[in-house]
Amino acid sequence: MKLWGGRFTKEENTAVHEFNESLSFDRRLYRQDIEGSIAHVRMLSKQGIVSEADRDAIIAGLEGILKDIEDGRLEFTKEHEDIHSFVEAHLTERIGEAGKRLHTGRSRNDQVALDMKLYCRERTDELAGLVKDLQRVLLGIMEEHLTTYMPGFTHLQKAQPVTLAHHVGAYFEMFERDRGRLSDLRKRMNLCPLGAGALAGTTYPLDREYTAGLLGFDGPTYNSMDSVSDRDYLIELLGALAIIAMHLSRFCEEIILWNSNEYRFVELDDAYSTGSSIMPQKKNPDIAELVRGKTGRVYGALMSLLTTMKGIPLAYNKDMQEDKEAAFDAIDTVKGCLKLFTGMISTVTFRKDAMAASAKNGFTNATDAADYLVNKGVPFRDAHGIVGQLVLRCIDRGIALDELSLEEYKAVSPVFEEDIYDAISLKTCVEKRTVTGAPGPAAMERAIRACRERLEDGSDGQR
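Below the sequence we write its predicted structure tokens.
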């Protein structure tokens, strides 16, 4: 059944139907479509536009269709153009004339806008929950590894010693901002477009505030043309998903590096690794690599919708049907990535010995050696040069700074004393960094308390 057939004298070309249809992908909106229709007919009855008897018949019919779809007794068939015509056709088939009254005062334009908002609102809440699950795992790692020393990097070069707690805490903050973005965009999307009609509202005395309230919206949208042509909320969601994927990809890149024979910072659980069909020694970080790879797929969805929307005049145009497949795929992809990454990182074994050895052998304590001299009255620029000479000597001999003898230190600068060894130990280098945001245990304990409070108090990532 076509919802628009009266004006046409020919049947739609089969190829046109197949090119035009959206049921093959918008079928996943069946529950939102039925939920919106039930709210709509309740409002129509409240306003005296349809009778209570028709209202009750329509609601019973819609609830029956929903149950039959979810029980597998009602299949989606290709003769229907979209989820809206599928539901309405089956409703009319089941309850007769009353079913034809459901579409009073609405258009597929505001109907699909509603369905997508309901769907995106639910997925936004689900995604925020998955991000929070990951943050809980990261917080556990932070609490366990307050004194697990490792090198911090800039330019992928060893820079200064930090702790695993501090390193993982950086990702906690990234995902905290992700939760904030999801919360923020959810607030903006939570206005109801139903009642906007095709673009200019309707002459029926609809109560849009009532419908919005039934569906859990903060209120109705303000402009009927914007209501049916707006996809900003979806672009924002895809943007937030792209950033989440980017954060996951960065972490995955580090896991991949840390899993290599050159680093050996981590041991991946067998359940989250794969092997080689030809090389029996291999244990590959495929989950991390796939998450890294799927990030490009999510970026593609964002760029696809931005490109689709950039040249569309007001109000609704059929181009906008292209918002769904890419969005559905991006949502599914990020959900899968979050679940798999959380499982992977929760089962990783961190090799504390390899991390500490890497920090020690990478001259990450060189800045602290310079600071030692400054505290003895040496100008920083001179101290920088002195420690640079010491590093060169260590490189020539293949040793670390704390393996030089005191005589060798004094040969470069007589200011050095026996306390240099304590000053450049990894423990000292980290512990004396106590300012807010630093890796020292005192600072990290404060940070961990703040992180836990943000997770437990229902915070949405906003400060």
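DSSP finds 19 helices and four strands in the chain.
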